[in-house]
């Protein structure tokens, strides 16, 4: 099919600044038809900005863009779409109340002839079915209510939407981050079908195994520069990481072992919403306990139940053998529990407030003086300390949280909880969507917490991370704990078996 | 083997965004607007920048300024309070009944006026947090009608006049050339500034407006703060009513009709965001001043009232558009 040997897309010397902040400092990228081209870089390396230029959301400051050999201007999202550039964002742009085919044709509905310009539902349905079949899906899907589908199938609908637009290049921004195992497999096979048809995929991911499996070529960005473009098959994963972080990472998982102490935290008969059987477990000092399981197994719900984030059903929580009463998040915090939620933006941060306020938010009492006034200077000083300690970049306390990259936002959320001087830290997917360098920093921090006598629990869907960092693994399935494994006996297979209820 | 590509570690410099002229312009846009407006009106009318007229503006702006500062709080929490105009009316009618019809002490009248305002605010807060009505637009739309209805019913729609000096003091008296009502505004604004920037509850108001869920999970008692917000808004409506009674020496049940709209306009012109979490006390003061200066100036220029409404409409849209432009410039991935 593809006759010209040149590239489908070529970007040369792309530069972009926001005020004083130079985000892209001359980036080249070329994408060939039918390839999966991976963009890899730490948070803040410039990936999302580059993508936004490619989709017409941002205007570039300098540089050239060629599409099928022709120099083009790319100033609006509509221009990008009409060329055949489609984007699947992490947050899906679908409307649950509409049917699948209506979603696929949203904004460019087919009309019947005649003055009334009624919708041509038959034609739309037919076309939607065709696109879904191209992805190996059942055509019957077209008539389903979108909201009834799982997140993986919703994503496929977005891809079908791109196909209906005759997309030649589909950008996927961390498409697997919220998918379950089978959904991920389904996505992989869809991507294969697309590339066979000559469609190019630009793929952003932090999951290295996935890149190895899916990618044809990989372009590594760092600090707004393109470092290199490499073939995936013939290069080492470690080499990518070195290029990405600009230094050798000693270890991906800086696991430290501490002497196991007394039981410090115990949960009894906690009711996790949706199941009948209450849950209990305990954690000793000196160990990191992982909570594994599939998406929807009730891990986050368990953490929320402990924290009383929603109405508390029942159950008891003990710290150092003493029962603590938790009726609200405030009680939980006052008793020394920190819950680092999964979704930074919607549950963790005040995006339009400076970093110091974000950090002090959960412990304002500490900064309230006898006069009942808030000690702004004290907040500032403490926040600056955390920013330095956690190496938040840029290290400007007055910056609004919105302007930080994902990894740095996560550090601010962690700083907020460190500031509460909690004893028990429950991390929910602490490294999702953050880069390798920041991941290691989060792991190191967990080590430090353990060392300083805290209790650490980590909910994670990333099995290598669980196996790499934890001393013990609790596996959940359908709201129950189905396995409690010492790390020596935990293998991917055993965890998966327990996670699938087998 | 790849040491040559291992480039320098990223510099860890303190990145402080330079304060450019542009950033100042956008930050002080409302103030610049007020200064420009004042300058233009000074040229257009020689009566505008006289001591007499300036004090007149100060006096005229005070009722809206007090309502607006109350309104700032719900808007900061991404809410709204449509009921303040009606609460103003019911507060002064009850005060009239207590201090004139029943002949009780004026001090008691003043306290009752404020208490009625706060009580209606409390109802707004409870409707929002306990009945969990989906948006304060709805709950306060309800209380707006209820309060107005009560104001009409309890006095059979008749005005009450002849208030004692003590009640009229705030709205009528001067200290030298300066109206007491304006001094009250300044005092209230200073208190609000300290409240919003320096107290725990004040900071929580911003936190809730910025991200309600994050605030809740950070241990903030969101319901309690929201109730306080609406109580204060109602209290300010009562206070504004007190000033109004002093100004016109009567209380009538249709007082404050649609005043909530000017209050909302002042908050928005002053740079607060309808999405919550963004807005300042001083911005609101300038917003209230812009509206007052505009009204006064258009009066001096003999522009009919109908036109004045249209002009204020334009100013609201222009002010928010400036903010939209600023946000678009500032956004980044």
TrEMBL record, chain A:
Residues 9-248, 260-499 form the ABC transporter domain. Pfam families: ABC_tran (PF00005). It is a peripheral membrane protein. GO terms for molecular function: ATP binding; ATP hydrolysis activity. It is found in: Cell membrane. Keywords: ATP-binding, Cell membrane, Membrane, Nucleotide-binding, Repeat, Sugar transport, Translocase, Transport. GO terms for cellular component: plasma membrane. It comes from the Bacteria. InterPro entries: AAA+_ATPase, ABC_carbohydrate_import_ATPase, ABC_transporter-like_ATP-bd, ABC_transporter-like_CS, P-loop_NTPase. PANTHER family: CARBOHYDRATE TRANSPORT ATP-BINDING PROTEIN MG119-RELATED (PTHR43790), D-ALLOSE IMPORT ATP-BINDING PROTEIN ALSA-RELATED (PTHR43790:SF3). This is D-ribose transporter ATP-binding protein. It comes from Peribacillus loiseleuriae.
């Amino acid at each position: 099919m593809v006759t010209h040997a040149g590239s489908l897309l070529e970007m040369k010397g792309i530069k972009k600044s926001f005020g004083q902040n130079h985000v892209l400092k001359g980036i080249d990228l070329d994408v060939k038809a039918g390839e999966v081209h991976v963009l890899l870089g730490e948070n803040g390396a410039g990936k999302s900005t580059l993508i936004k230029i490619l989709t017409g959301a941002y205007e570039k400051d300098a540089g050239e863009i060629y599409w099928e050999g022709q120099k083009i201007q790319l100033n609006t999202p509509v221009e990008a779409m009409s060329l055949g550039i489609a984007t699947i964002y992490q947050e899906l742009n679908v409307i649950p109340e509409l049917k699948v085919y209506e979603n696929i044709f949203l904004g460019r509905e087919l009309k019947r002839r005649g003055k009334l310009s009624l919708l041509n539902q038959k034609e739309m349905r037919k076309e939607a079915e065709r696109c879904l079949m191209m992805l190996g899906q059942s055509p019957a899907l077209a008539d389903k209510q979108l909201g009834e589908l799982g997140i993986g199938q919703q994503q496929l609908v977005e891809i079908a939407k791109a196909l209906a637009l005759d997309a030649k290049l589909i950008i996927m921004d961390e498409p697997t981050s919220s998918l379950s195992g089978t959904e991920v497999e389904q996505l992989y096979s869809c991507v294969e079908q697309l590339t066979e048809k000559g469609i190019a995929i630009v793929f952003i991911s932090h999951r290295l195994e996935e890149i190895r499996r899916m990618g044809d070529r990989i372009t590594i960005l760092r600090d707004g520069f393109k470092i290199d473009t490499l073939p995936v098959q013939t290069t080492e994963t470690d080499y990518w990481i070195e290029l990405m972080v600009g230094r050798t990472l000693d270890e991906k998982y800086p696991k430290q072992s501490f002497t196991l102490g007394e039981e410090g935290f115990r949960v009894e008969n906690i009711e996790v919403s949706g199941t009948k059987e209450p849950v209990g477990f305990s954690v000793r000092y000196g160990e990191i306990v992982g909570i594994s399981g599939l998406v929807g197994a009730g891990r986050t719900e368990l953490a929320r139940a402990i924290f009383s984030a929603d109405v508390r059903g029942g159950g008891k929580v003990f710290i150092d053998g003493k029962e603590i009463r938790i009726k609200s998040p405030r009680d939980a915090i006052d008793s020394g529990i920190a819950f680092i939620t999964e979704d930074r933006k919607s549950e963790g941060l005040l995006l339009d407030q400076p970093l110091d306020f974000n950090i002090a938010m959960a412990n304002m009492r500490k900064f309230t003086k006898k006069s009942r006034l808030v000690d702004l200077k004290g907040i500032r000083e403490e926040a600056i300390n955390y920013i330095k300690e956690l190496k938040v970049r840029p290290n400007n306390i007055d910056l609004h949280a919105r302007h930080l990259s994902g990894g740095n936002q996560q550090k601010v959320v962690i700083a907020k909880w460190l500031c509460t001087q909690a004893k028990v830290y429950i991390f929910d997917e602490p490294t999702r969507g953050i880069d390798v360098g920041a991941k290691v920093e989060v792991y190191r921090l967990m080590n430090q917490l353990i060392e300083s006598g805290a209790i650490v629990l980590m909910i994670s869907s990333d099995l290598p991370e669980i196996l790499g960092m934890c001393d013990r693994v609790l596996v959940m399935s359908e709201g129950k704990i189905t396995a409690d494994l010492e790390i020596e006996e935990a293998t991917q297979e055993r965890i998966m078996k327990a996670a699938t209820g087998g | 083997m790849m040491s040559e590509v291992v480039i320098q570690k990223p510099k860890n410099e303190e990145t402080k965004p330079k304060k450019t002229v542009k950033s100042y312009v956008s930050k002080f846009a409302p103030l610049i607007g007020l200064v420009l407006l004042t300058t233009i009106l000074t040229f257009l009318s020689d009566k505008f920048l006289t001591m007499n007229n300036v004090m007149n503006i100060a006096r005229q702006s005070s009722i809206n300024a007090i309502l607006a500062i109350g309104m700032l709080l719900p808007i900061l929490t991404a809410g709204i309070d449509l009921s303040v105009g009606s609460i103003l009316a019911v507060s002064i009618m009850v005060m009239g009944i207590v201090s004139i019809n029943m002949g009780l002490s004026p001090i008691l009248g003043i306290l009752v006026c404020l208490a009625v305002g706060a009580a209606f605010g409390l109802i707004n807060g409870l409707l929002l947090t306990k009945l969990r009505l989906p948006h304060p637009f709805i709950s306060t739309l309800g209380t707006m009608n209820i309060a107005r209805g009560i104001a009409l019913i309890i006095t059979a729609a008749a005005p009450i006049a002849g208030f004692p000096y003590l009640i009229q003091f705030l709205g009528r008296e001067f200290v030298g050339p300066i109206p007491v009502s304006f001094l009250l505004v300044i005092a209230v604004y200073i208190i609000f500034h300290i409240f919003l920037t320096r107290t725990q509850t004040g900071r929580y108001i911003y936190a809730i407006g910025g991200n309600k869920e994050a605030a809740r999970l950070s241990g903030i008692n969101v319901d309690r703060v929201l109730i306080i917000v609406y109580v204060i808004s109602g209290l300010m409506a009562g206070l504004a009513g007190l000033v109004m009674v002093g100004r016109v020496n009567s209380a009538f049940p249709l007082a404050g009709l649609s005043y909530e709209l000017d209050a909302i306009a002042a908050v928005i012109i002053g740079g607060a965001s309808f999405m919550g979490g963004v807005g300042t006390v001083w911005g609101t003061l300038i917003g209230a001043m812009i509206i007052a200066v505009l009204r006064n100036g258009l009066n001096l220029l003999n522009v009919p009232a109908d036109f004045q409404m249209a002009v204020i409409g334009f100013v609201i849209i222009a002010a928010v558009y400036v903010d939209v432009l600023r946000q678009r410039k500032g956004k980044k991935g």
